[in-house]
């Protein structure tokens, strides 16, 4: 056998490979995902509305009832994350369980659970916002910009 | 001394090392899969009483490596080198397992190709006359990989359909200069190839060209055909990567028949909903140490080509927009 026989090299260019790879990679099931997100997201909001109505019936005014219901939903999202259920819901619901406030609770509690083993300072403290951080940063930044525009328009 | 190197990338061992024993330890989900009965040990849960996922993974590896030595029935003191690797930063699972085993240790990193890499390097050590017994083992853990490469384990998001599920498991083989068992007759070490895949949710596509390249060179170096093997198993290309490998090979002038499969397609069944299949160092390691070794020993497989596949990126390189380089290492095992 000869010592140096190079090539064989693959008879495909990176461009051809990219096309082939796109063809063979399964596409996301967008319609199915949307339906799941619509119903689960809707269900979470409906539960929120029921809680608000119950608080109003219990004597709170509308603003107080909304705040209390939000707090209760955050608690439920955190609880379900701790019990290991929320990620199972998220697998099917996608944006339907990420966008509501329960999803925000999940995005804070899951790093807290995950990084507790690195301690309360460098673990929980430093990495609590690894998932929610971008939402907070750009949410707050956007609100500042909107606030400035509002100030000059009025 | 005759050079044992043949062709572009292959070595042929003059006294092929023997696989004296193999041992596999897996998590509960792998235990419920189609290969469940082929594993030596199945954990009841993913953490097994350890303090962290990382320590649990190290324990998996330690149990697998000790299991292989015990099964071979030789004292630990007769093992000359321990070769191990895993996916965690600075390969801590291996380092910590090595701390327990207290053997001369060579840490390896070939991402998910490390089992095949370890078997190749271990065989070189033995055939080169540097060792009489070499212990090779690798591990991966679903949860330790998730937290390092992706998101906290309890975060509720959706995985893409091309994504694969990191195997919780460790596999180990004990190689010896002499004895009875299947023999490692040749190895083809791969080149790093990058065809520009940047999607970390599609590792199969990132690794397939490197695996195909190693296969092509292997067949040319030894002047063999795919039909010369009773089984050609890639490490963890998954559904997408295995299809791509077949297609790329075909376009390069070689067709893989029914003897070709991927270890990532063997561990879980459809109902386990892992999307494109299994991945991780443990994937090819537990399939080889369990199912393939049993079939080699039983004689139903004559000559096997195991091609470990690795994605050589890091979370940092991916965030900085770099594509994912791939590698494939092949070892020939004959029953």
From TrEMBL, chain A:
Q: Which domain of life is it from?
A: Bacteria
Q: Which Pfam families match?
A: SpoVAC_SpoVAEB
Give the keywords, sorted.
Membrane, Transmembrane, Transmembrane helix
Q: Which InterPro entries match?
A: Spore_V_AC, SpoVA
Q: Which residues cross the membrane?
A: 35-56, 68-86, 92-113, 125-153
UniProt-listed NCBIfam families: spore_V_AC (TIGR02838)
| PANTHER family per the UniProt record, alphabetical | STAGE V SPORULATION PROTEIN AC, STAGE V SPORULATION PROTEIN AC-RELATED
State the protein's name.
Stage V sporulation protein AC
Source organism: Acididesulfobacillus acetoxydans
**What broad taxonomic lineage does this protein's source fall under?**
Bacteria, Bacillati, Bacillota, Clostridia, Eubacteriales
Automatic annotation (TrEMBL), chain B:
Pfam name, any one: SpoVAD
Q: Which InterPro entries match?
A: SpoVAD, SpoVAD_sf, Thiolase-like
The name on file for this protein is Stage V sporulation protein AD
A GO molecular function assigned to this protein is: acyltransferase activity
Q: Where are the transmembrane segments?
A: 101-126
Name the UniProt key words of this record, in alphabetical order: Membrane, Transmembrane, Transmembrane helix
> Which domain of life does the protein's organism represent?
Bacteria
Q: Which Gene3D superfamilies match?
A: Stage V sporulation protein AD (3.40.47.40)
Coiled-coil annotated residue ranges, if any:
none
């Amino acid at each position: 056998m000869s010592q140096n026989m190079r090539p064989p090299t693959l008879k495909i260019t990176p461009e051809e490979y990219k096309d082939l790879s796109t063809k063979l990679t399964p596409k996301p099931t967008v319609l199915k995902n949307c339906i799941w997100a619509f119903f689960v997201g809707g269900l979470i909001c409906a539960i929120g509305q029921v809680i608000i109505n119950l608080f109003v019936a219990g004597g709170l005014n509308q603003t107080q009832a909304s705040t209390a219901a939000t707090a209760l939903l955050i608690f439920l999202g955190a609880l379900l994350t701790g019990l290991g259920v929320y990620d199972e819901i998220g697998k099917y619901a996608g944006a339907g369980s990420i966008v509501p406030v329960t999803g925000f609770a999940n995005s804070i509690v899951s790093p807290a659970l995950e990084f507790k083993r690195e301690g309360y300072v460098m673990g929980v403290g430093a990495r609590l916002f690894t998932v929610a951080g971008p939402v907070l940063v750009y949410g707050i930044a956007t609100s500042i910009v909107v606030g400035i525009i509002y100030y000059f328009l009025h | 001394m005759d050079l044992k190197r043949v062709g572009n990338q292959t070595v042929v061992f003059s006294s092929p090392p023997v696989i004296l024993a193999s041992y596999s330890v897996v998590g509960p989900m792998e235990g419920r899969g189609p290969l469940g009965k082929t594993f030596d040990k199945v954990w009841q849960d993913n953490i097994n009483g350890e303090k962290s996922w990382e320590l649990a993974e190290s324990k998996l590896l330690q149990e697998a490596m000790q299991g292989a030595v015990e099964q071979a029935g030789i004292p630990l003191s007769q093992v000359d080198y321990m070769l191990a690797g895993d996916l965690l930063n600075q390969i801590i699972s291996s380092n910590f397992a090595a701390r327990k085993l207290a053997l001369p240790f060579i840490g390896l990193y070939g991402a998910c190709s490390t089992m095949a890499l370890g078997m190749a390097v271990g065989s070189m050590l033995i055939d080169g006359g540097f060792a009489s017994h070499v212990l090779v083992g690798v591990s991966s853990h679903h949860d330790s990989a998730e937290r390092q490469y992706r998101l906290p384990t309890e975060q509720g998001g959706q995985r893409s359909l091309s994504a694969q599920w990191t195997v919780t498991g460790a596999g180990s083989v004990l190689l010896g200069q002499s004895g009875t068992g299947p023999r490692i007759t040749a190895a083809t070490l791969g080149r790093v190839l990058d065809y520009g895949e940047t999607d970390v949710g599609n590792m199969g596509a990132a690794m397939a060209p490197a695996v195909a390249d190693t296969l092509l060179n292997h067949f040319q170096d030894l002047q063999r055909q795919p039909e010369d093997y009773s089984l050609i198993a890639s490490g963890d290309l998954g559904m997408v990567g295995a299809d791509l490998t077949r297609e790329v090979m075909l376009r390069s002038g070689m067709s893989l028949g029914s003897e070709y499969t991927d270890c990532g397609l063997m561990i879980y069944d459809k109902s386990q909903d892992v999307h494109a299949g299994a991945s991780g160092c443990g994937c090819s390691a537990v399939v080889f140490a369990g199912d393939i070794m049993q079939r080699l020993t039983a004689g139903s497989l004559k000559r096997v080509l195991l091609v470990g596949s690795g994605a050589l990126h890091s979370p940092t390189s991916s965030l900085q927009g770099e594509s994912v380089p791939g590698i494939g290492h092949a070892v020939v095992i004959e029953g």
